[in-house]
Structures are given as structure tokens and as C-alpha cells.
Amino acid sequence: MRTDTPITVFRKDYQPYPYDIPEVSLAFDLAPEATEVRCTMRVLRKPGASTDAALILDGEDLELVSVGVNGAPLAADGYHLSEQSLALYGLPADATIEIVSRCNPSANSTLMGLYVSGGNFFTQCEAEGFRRITWFADRPDVMSRYRVTLRAQPQYPVLLSNGNLIATRQLPDGRNEVEWEDPFPKPCYLFALVAGNLTHRETTVKTASGRDVLLQVYSDPGSETKTEWALDSLVRALRWDETRFGLELDLDRFMIVAVHDFNMGAMENKGLNIFNAAYVLADPDTATDANYEGIESVIGHEYFHNWTGNRITCRDWFQLSLKEGLTVFRDQEFSADMMAHDMDAAAAASARAVKRIDDVVALRAAQFPEDAGPMAHPIRPESYQEIGNFYTATVYEKGAEVIRMQHTLLGEEGFRAGMDEYFRRHDGQAVTCDDFVDAMESVYVRQHPGRDLSVFRRWYRQAGTPRVTVKLDHDAATRRCTVTLTQECQPVGVEKKAGADYVKAPYHIPFALGLLDHEGRALPLRHEGTVQETALLELTTHSQQWVFEDIADYPVPSLLRDFSAPVIVDYDWTDEELALLSAHDSNPFARWEAGQELATRQILALAQARQAGRTLHADAAFIDAWRALLTDPAIDAAYRARALALPSEKTLAERMHAVDPPALAVARDFLRAELGRQLTAEFRLAFDQNQTPGEYSPAPVPAGMRALKNLALSHLLAAGEHEAQRLAEQQYEKAGNMTDSMAALSALINYGQGEFPQEALAAFYDKWSDNPLVVDKWFALQAAARSTTVQTARDLMTHPAFTLRNPNRARALIFQFCLNNARGMHHPDGTGYAFWAEQVLALDALNPEIAARLARALDNWSRYVPALRTPMQAALQQVRAHEGLSRNVQEIVSKALEFAA
Predict the structure, then answer these.
(1) Helix axis angle, 588-612 relative to 575-584, nearest 10°?
(2) Contacts of 58 (CB under 8 A, 6+ apart)
(3) Quick count: other Cβ atoms within 10 Å of Cβ 474?
(4) Minimal CA–CA distance to 709: which of 637, 797, 633?
(5) 3-state class of 519 per DSSP?
(6) 3-class DSSP state for residue 564?
(7) How are the residues of the chain apportioned to helix, strand and coil, as percentages rounded to the nearest 5?
(8) Is 377 helix (H, G, I), strand (E, B) or coil?
(9) Apex CA 15: angle with CA 22 and CA 94, to 5°?
């Protein structure tokens, strides 16, 4: 763990590496406590580089055995070894360097570099893990061709690395030896190695050009039945990328390997993707609909990186969104297309809207608070202390929205042309975000002579979420409606250092708008020579106006359709207008948005009443609007489940001047129960009509039916309906799939009565105690339960199945409690924050990357009510003062305290 003084790295200081390393040969003699690595690399000094330039190689927690140049040992005065680097001096312009080192994979609790999990060897090298394997230029702009030799004892029969399999043999000492070669240059962060006792499922498919390629999914023995969906998802991803973007798999094989100890969701290593087992293993008994959807999405994401991230990679880590934002957009589109597959036009539009809603819900819950907090940064940051802290919702999800805006501005055909141009210009290179926008701009300027994307580029260098204020003026005499859009974005995070005179420049905001009459009918909009229901307005200055002709009466605006830009809209709709939009808007996303705004207003009003000690009651008009959504036969079940879901506490918190999580939790619970009481008959009908008997399928239609049925069950149980308890108990006992089992158990734990909920919890664990992913679900259910306190969480930590060393288990209990339990975490006595500080420090001693993610739970402490703010600040100060704190956590807590809102 690095505990020295943090160093801030700035994008403006980027310098090319003075050497090329075109070829690397790695030989591993694998042993859990002492793996020897022989790294042989050809090193070429770049033209123009100083002949005195040292070759600086990164390394951490390595034992140097030997170093040689051109076959001869290097003299002691020819190199300098430090804790984090190996410098070689006086090298010829063309040299072969050989470095032999040792590492201890079994002691590597950081799960970065080479480590042991479940008795097998795995690697994780992004962002800076390769330096824990061997000394190397651990930066993404050094791209090399790799040849890898793996040698291991017979208990590790599966030996995998990147690229194509070259040779396998048994050595005289009984060990197995395997050689792999990757024909494509790649940065070292894409290196991968897997060695162990694994089983696999495979299939051979023919690519669009007629080549046969082998697809394989590896996992622990005995889990073969749980990898079918993953392999099918991989085939679908391969076909989709060929069809949608014309991109074909470029290797002879593509492998996915599941591991239970993993810091992230998955990693796109060239041809050898290593996955958190949670995003590989699934069967109806152990995985929910959400798990199935997540597996398909993540497999798509990592496969799509083969081109957007691997064939073209980042010049430096400031450009991380170049690959991640783009690939998130691609996996979102893939998932939407899979959800809409084989549906008629109307059903497909609804299915795609469901996916869009889910993506925006996630963005608002995670990224909007980040944009408003001390860690706010552009999708292309200007500086960092630990790059691991910038694998954020801003880089990923907001980065995807920035790509989506380019897709919106160019259209599907134009965006595809821009992608083709991007690959034509940069295949095999390490490039920048500007290079990507340049390719898109080459198409945009042809479509719009005299215009460019110079203003749009500000999305890459400015942080924060812009606010767009909308004003409508209607002239009945001329039948004209004038729409005025005004944008602003205040300095956030590190931008505050610029001082009071710092003013951010306007963004280029594609703003999709529709107008409805007071019967809910769409009005035709004449815009840029077209007549359509939706006009795409391009806001590029502080304020602009657009005039629409032949609008007889003052219209009801449908704003930011399909969430055409990641902005906050300010418009003072009446509740009656929102109800009309919720019932009639032809744009599914905007229709959902109107209902969410109604619910948000209702919950915030209830929270204020709670804070003031007033009696809580729900407005009849809101109940009627929810009844209309619940009973509308024209809306499919999946869409209704989203439309009727109450806004999350995290999203609601962004609308409070002083955040009060317990008040929000009480308000949401009251409204959930009140809806259940007043719409009992309607919810019971929805529950009955959306049963899915027969064989389980994760397809969108039955999954949507289960989502609506289980939402109805939670409302009925929250309302205290005795019959609902019986329904929930019956569903839990007879459930034929994990989705229904978990939904019933969750409802019972949170709203049930009597002894059954606790008995069911105990029985659930007994049944699934040998399945780590289901045990994670068991911990997570309890961690987020309404009745769970700090003491409950502590008690759960003493359970024999709990360990902080496994990231999934830590996320299931500690993260769930700290991030998603408003009552327990934010108790006024401050015990939740003391618990948070304790766990951050405990995790930091094991795995700083995971600890830093937990540290983010208190980012926005200064925006909370005073009673909570003070103990939050004390907890942050306690963590920052801890001796030996990692750079990862130090950066998070220091910024939280320094750049408080």
C-alpha cells in the first residue's frame, strides 16, 4: 500500500514515453507464494529522444532477481531500484532487456496484479496493476505485441492468456507449459493470465466474413449449468456488433472467465475477459431477472471493448471516457435492441423506453450527486491523485450520455459514418477524446455547413450538470408559441479553486421538445423545414429562442424527450399539466418523467410535513394519476412497473435544500403504504393478472410481468393488508425462480408481521449457504432492510459467511447498509457514520480501491441537515487523520472536506 505524500498528476503535463516497446515475451513459473516472471522486451529509443534518457519502469511489491541488457547482466551502476520504479541508464538505441522478478500472489489482497482466488491464479491490470507483475512502462500509450509462456503444476490444468493458443506441452518435471500469442499491439493494462482448475462451456460460430471462431466461458467445476446464458449473451453481442457497427471478432477465440474475488464487474483484456462471477453465473433458481439483464449487458460491454478500448485505446488515463463512455453507450444500445427484439413497432418503442428509463434512473441516482459534490469532475478530468478513483459514474454513465448526444445530433446513419471514420483513422493507436470528436465532427460539418462541434467539446472539459430553464410564450392572435431555453452551470468541485470570477462557458445541448394540447394530443411542430411531433433544438449559447407557428392555444410542453441531454430542466408545470402528460404524452420517456415529477413533489411535501411534525396525507389528484397508470390497458407491464416505481431516495435528495434521509424514507414509506391502501383492488388485480406460470424465462415480457406483480405485492404488504402477507408467504414458499423468491422475502422482511419473515430468512440461508452469489443476496436484503440498525450490521459481520476480503461480500453488507439504508446509516446519534469510518479503515488495510469506493458514501456531507452534518464531518476527519491511509482514500476524504458544497 502506498502511503507517501499524494502527487497530483495533470493532463497538461502529458509527455510521450521516450521509448517504444514493440515486443514483449513473458514467462511465468506459477506458484502461489513465489511466482517467478521473466520479462524480455525489445526497447527502441524514439527519434528525437535524448540519448541520456533513462528507461523508467514501474513496479510495486516485486523482488528483483536479475536484470540484463542484450544478453549480459547489467552492472550495479547501470540501474537504480526504488519501491516504485526501476531505472536503466546508458541503453543503446535498440536493446533487448531481460528482467527476472518474483511476486507473492497469495498475499495480494488488493486484487490488482497477479493474485490467488479459490486456489486459482487471476490477474487484474487496469489501471496500474501490471506493475505488480513485472517492471514495465505501465501506461496505456505504450503498446506491444505479447508472447506469453505459462508453466504450472498439474493442479492448474487450465492455463490461459491473451490472443491465440500456440503450443501446449508437458515438461520433464511434470509441469504443464502453454504458449499464447496476441497478434495485436496492446497496452499492458489489457494483459491477462488465468491458471487453475476450471470447467468451461463453448461454442463455435462463423463470423460475418466466414471465419470459424471459438467462444468459451470458464468457471469453477460444478457451475457448468449456470454459464449457458453468459455464452448465449456473448453470441448475441458478437452478432450485434457485426450488424450495428460492422465490427468483427479479430481473434481465433474469445474467452470469459468467472472469479468470485474481483474488484469490479469485469475486465476487457484482449481475448481473455475476466469477470466477477456475479456477471457470469445464472440459472432460474439462483439469479433474478435483474441478474440476467446485468449479465447480458456486462458481457456485451466487455466484448464491445474489443474495438472501442482495445483496438483503439487511450493515450493516457485522462482519456478514460474515450473507451468507457463510448462502450457504455454501445452496451446500452445493445441491451435496448435485445429487449425490443422480435416485437412490433409499438412494443419495441416501449421496450426501448424501459431501457432508457433504467439508464436515466441510474444516472440520476449516482452521477447527478457526483456532479454536485466535491468529487465533481469533467468526463475528461484535468487532474487526479489516484486514477482508480476516477472509474466513476461521470466517466462511464455521463460519458455515455455525451456519446449519445453526438448520436442524437448526427442521427443513426451519421453516427455510424463517424464511427467508421474513427476506426479508419485510429485503428491500432492510443488516442484522445478529441480524436473521437474530430471523427464525429467530420460528419457533422457535412450535414450542417457552417457549423461545428467546438461548443460541444466543452462537455469534455467542464464539470457539473447544466440547468436549462424553459419559458413558453403564446400569442393567440398570431397563433405563435415562442420557446426560450436558458442554460447555466455553476462551478463545482475543483472548479471552485478558480475563484469567484470563474464563469463556465455555455454547452451545446440537444433539447428534444414536443407540445400537447389540453386534450393530450400532440401538436405538429414546424422546425427547420420539417413537420414533426418532436423538434430537436440545439442550444449553444446562454439563451436562445425558437418560434412555432399555428399553435392555436397555450400548449403543454413535453420537455427533454428521451432525455436528449444530461441536464436538469426547470419548468413550472401545474400538477394538472403533469397529470395530463403522465396520461397522454406520446413520448414514453417524457410520459414516465411527468409521473415521476408528480411523485417527487408529493414525497418532498410529505418529507417537509414530517420535519414540521404535521400529519401526513396524500393528495387525491396524485392517487388518481397513479390509478390511471396502474389500470391503463394500453401500457405493457414492464413500462407500468417503471412508471409506478417511486423515485429513489438518492434522486429525491438532490431536490432538497438540506438533505434529510430519514424524513425522505418515512415519506416514501408513507406514500407506498397509502397507495397500497387506496388502490388495493387495482394492485391486487395487477398481482393476479401478471403471474408467470410455467417454465422460467428472462425475456422482457415475462420479466416485465414479474416486475409489475412484485411491485404490486410490495405496495399491498406495505399497506398492512392481511391478505397480502398470505400472498407473500405463499409466493415465497412456492416460487419457481429467484426473482419471485427474493421479491416476496424482501417485502416480508420490510413490511411483514409475525415470525415468518425471520424464519424464512434462516431457511433461505440454510438452502443456499453453499452458493456465494445467493449468500450475497441474503446479506444485502438484511443490510438494506428498514429495521436494520448499526448493531444489526455488526451482528451480521460476525456471521461465519462474512468476510471483508471478498469485495462482493463487503458490497453486499457494508456498502448496502452505508449507501442504501437511510434510517440505519443516518441515525441522529452518528453511530452510522462511526461504523462507516471503521469499515473504510478496515477495508483500506486490505484493498484500497474498494475502501475508496465506500469512502464516497459521505461525499456530499455538507448538504445534509445540521444534525447529521456535524457527525459526518467528524467521521471524515477521523479517516483523514488515520496514519498510513492509502492515497486512494486520502484523495476522497480530503476532497470531501476541502471542496464541500
Answers:
(1) 140
(2) 84, 85, 128, 130, 131, 135, 136, 137, 138, 139
(3) 16
(4) 637
(5) coil
(6) coil
(7) 45, 20, 35
(8) coil
(9) 30
Q: What is the pLDDT of residue 500?
A: 75
Closest CA to 132 of 161, 160, 162, 110: 110
If phi > 0 it is left, if psi is from -120 to 50 it is alpha, else beta; for residue 271 that is: left
> What letter represents residue 667's amino acid?
A
User: Residue 492: CB partners within 8 Å, gap ≥ 6?
Assistant: 371, 372, 373, 376, 463, 464
Instruction: Give the separation between CA 265 and CA 784, rounded to whole angstroms.
Output: 21
C-alpha cell recorded at residue 828: 441522529
Q: How far apart (Å, rounded) are the C-alpha atoms in residues 790 and 774?
A: 23
Cβ-in-10-Å burial (0-12, 13-18, 19+) of 413 comes to: exposed
Q: Which stretches does DSSP call E strand in 211-327?
A: 212-219, 253-259, 266-267, 272-276, 313-314
What is the SS3 assignment for 320? Answer: helix
pLDDT of residue 202: 98
- In the block, cell 440505519 appears at 824
Q: Give the contacts of 551 (CB within 8 A, at least 6 positions apart).
A: 474, 479, 480, 481, 515, 523
Whether residue 817 contacts residue 825, with contact meaning beta carbons closer than 8 Å, is answered with yes
Count CA atoms within 13 Å of residue 239 on its CB side.
Answer: 12
Crossing angle for the helix pair 700-718 and 345-371, to the nearest 10 degrees: 60
- C-alpha angle 371/373/378, rounded to 5°? 40
Q: Edge-to-edge strand order for the sheet containing 193-196?
A: 113-117, 120-124, 193-196, 158-161
Active site residue 302: yes
Amino acid at 103: C
Type and span of the H or E element at 839: helix 831-844
DSSP helix/strand/coil, 396 = helix
CB 721 within 8 A of CB 740: no
What is the per-residue burial (b if ≥16 Cβ within 10 Å, else e) of 282-303? bbbbbbbbebbbbbbbbbbbbb
8 A C-beta contact, residue 6 and residue 385? yes
Rg (alpha carbons) of the chain, rounded to whole number: 28
| pLDDT for res 2 | 46
pTM to 2 decimal places: 0.98
Element (H, E) at 44: strand 35-45
pLDDT single digits (tens) 12-30? 999 999 999 999 999 999 9
Q: Give the number of other CB atoms < 10 A from CB of residue 209.
A: 8
d(CA 347, CA 701): 10
Residue 78: the pLDDT is 96
Distance of CA 389 to the CA centre of its chain: 14
Burial class (CB in 10 A: 0-12, 13-18, 19+), 469: middle
Amino acid present at 404: R
| Of 856, 877, 898, 847, nearest in space to 115 by CA | 847
Residue 1, pLDDT score: 42
Q: How far apart are CA 106 and CA 448, in angstroms?
A: 58
CB proximity list for 122: less than 8 A, separation 6 or greater: 114, 115, 116, 193, 194, 257, 259, 261, 262, 274
Segments of the chain scoring below 70 in pLDDT: 1-4
**Alpha-helix runs per DSSP H in 259-385:** 289-304, 320-339, 345-371
Distance CA 317, CA 315 (A): 7
Name, in order, each residue with C-beta under 8 angstroms of 610's C-beta and a sequence gap of 6 or more.
616, 663, 666, 667
Among residues 302, 397, 593, 891, the one annotated as catalytic is 302
Local structure of residue 554 (DSSP, 8 states):
P
Tens of pLDDT, residue by residue over 767-810, are 999 999 999 999 999 999 999 999 999 999 999 999 999 999 99
| Per-residue confidence (pLDDT) for residue 4, from 0 to 100 | 58
CB-based contact 262:274 (threshold 8 Å): yes
